[in-house]
Design brief:
single chain, 396 residues, Aspartate Aminotransferase, domain 1, Aspartate Aminotransferase, domain 2, 2 domains, seven-stranded mixed beta sheet, three-stranded antiparallel beta sheet, 16 helices, 14 strands
């Protein structure tokens, strides 16, 4: 078992571990790529070809041959752009919600002056069923759009995207999927599953710095976007991109070139490792993390293990422990940052380990678990030293 003295020496003299479900730790080669001398993306004659190639490589990760746009901004920009560009005032939008982010889509639909029809699970510790989605679609034939979160990161659950998307194909509605926390951590087949707009971001399993949001556009989505007459925004108006980039391969405005360099390197690392190996690695680490936390008396937040996301391990704050104090203690004393959750359902009740992207590796996981063991002991929740780490090692 690593001693407190060893931890202090290691972290104060070298670096801290950010084991959160986004932003994630970033590989050294990605950081190096970000430090390259910039080019002028508006004037460099070779840039459009490089940018297109980067978008196509991103398409390989999400398994689409459709157009992929790389937007300059954090992941929320992709959500905002998709809704603003597709949803019109007074539209009816089927909002499929199993957690905080799913319900958040409902609020964004209202901001578009449209009507959200919420179909929600009873609790955040469960996922949507195909039956409830099918019933909602049958009862609302006039919906224009359907929204779904694949991985509900705050609660650590993974909705059955493949099965739900199949049901959604029976509707003429545009299917918008937020796969920000699942892309490059588990299989997401955009074209095969019929996802019209698939949303992603750089700072989760891609393991690049925040700054690049991306999305894919099906022919159906492009048709809807290009038919819009007025969109009350510019920066998140996707028709700006369809007119300039898709038609002319010209950027509508100056892009975040350093973030693109980092993003491209991160995408290349994923493709070099191989998607199936990347998915296998996430599943292995996730299963081992779940076994490890359960071995020290912690309870997984998702109701069953089979609905737990392989990219984030969410567990209940144990009785007698102040979750906020534990978070601060782990960071201040051991240099390990993990995440809490928020809102009336999860706030103060759930903590999360970000075993996603670069963090889905044995070395980082052991450091995080060792710090968690020590921190719990420090706050009075007694754990036999080495239990979580030992369990984890047996599983991997």
């Amino acid at each position: 078992m690593t001693s407190e003295k060893d931890f202090k020496t290691f972290y104060t003299k070298q670096w801290n571990l950010m084991y959160t479900p986004g932003p994630t730790m970033v590989p050294p080669s990605v950081l190096k790529a970000m430090s390259k001398q910039i080019v002028n993306p508006d004037l460099d004659p070779d840039f459009p070809a490089w940018f297109l190639e980067t978008a196509q490589k991103t398409g390989e990760v999400i398994k689409t041959k459709e157009e992929v746009l790389l937007l300059p901004g954090e992941g929320m920009l992709a959500l905002d752009a998709a809704l603003n560009s597709v949803v019109k005032p007074d539209d009816k939008v089927l909002v499929l919600a199993s957690g905080i982010f799913g319900h958040g889509f409902g609020g964004m639909v209202k901001d578009c002056k449209a009507e959200p029809i919420i179909v929600a699970t009873e609790g955040y510790d469960e996922v949507l069923s195909v039956e409830m989605v099918k019933e909602a679609i049958d009862n609302n034939p006039d919906i224009s759009t359907i929204t779904l979160i694949h991985c509900e990161t705050p609660s650590g659950t993974l909705n059955p995207l493949k099965e739900i998307a199949k049901v959604c194909q029976k509707s003429n509605a545009v299917l918008i999927v937020d796969a920000v926390s699942s892309i490059a951590g588990t299989d997401v087949r955009t074209d095969e599953w019929g996802i019209d707009i698939n949303l992603g971001a750089s700072q989760k399993c891609i393991s690049a710095p925040p700054g690049i949001a991306f999305l894919s556009l099906s022919e159906k989505a492009l048709e809807v976007i290009n038919k819009r007459e007025t969109i009350p925004t510019f920066y998140s108006d996707l028709s700006v991109w369809t007119k300039s980039w898709i038609k002319e391969r010209r950027l509508p405005f100056t892009h975040l070139i350093s973030d693109l360099f980092a993003f491209r390197e991160a995408i290349d690392l994923i493709l070099d490792e191989g998607l199936e190996q990347v998915f296998k690695r996430h599943t292995l680490i996730s299963n081992a993390m779940i076994a490890a936390i359960e071995s020290i008396g912690l309870e997984l937040y998702p109701r069953t293990k089979d609905i737990a996301s392989p990219t984030v391990t969410a567990f209940k704050v144990p009785e007698g422990v102040d979750g906020n104090k534990l978070l601060l203690h782990l960071w201040r004393k051991y240099g390990v940052l993990i995440a809490d959750a928020w809102g009336p359902v999860l706030g103060g009740k759930v903590l999360r380990l970000g075993n996603m992207g670069y963090g889905a590796n044995t070395h980082f996981a052991i450091i995080a678990l060792a710090a968690l063991e020590n921190g719990l002991n420090d706050l009075g929740f007694k754990v036999a030293p080495g239990t979580a780490v030992g369990t984890f090692m047996k599983e991997v």
